[in-house]
Amino acid sequence: MKKWLAVLLTAMLALAAGCSSNAGGSSGGSASGGDVPQELTYASTSDIVGLSPIGTNDSVSSRVIEQVYETLFVRNPETMEVEPKLAESYETPDENTWVIKLKEDIQFTDGTPLNAEAVKYTFDKFRDPETAAPRASLLEPISEVNVVDEFTVEIKTEKPYGAMLAALSHTNASIVSPEADQSQDLMKEPVGTGPFKFVSWTQGDQVVLEKNADYWQGEPSLEKVTFKVVPEVNTAISMLQTGDVQFIDGIPSDQLKRVESLDNVEVTKNEGTPMYYMGFNMEREPMKDLEFRQAAAYALDREAYVNKLNGLGVEGNSVIGPKVFGFDESANESGYSYDFEKAKELVEANGYGEEQLTILTANTEAYMMMAEIAQSQLTEAGFNVEIESMEWGTFLDTTKEGNFDITFMGWSNSTADGSELLYPNFHSDNIDSSNKVNYSNPEFDALVDESRQNVDQEVRQQKLDEANKLLVEDATAVIMHHGVVTAAYDKSVKGLEVDPTGQWSLYNVSRE
Question: Considering only CA atoms, which of 400, 419, 408 is closest in space to residue 465?
Answer without folding.
Answer: 419
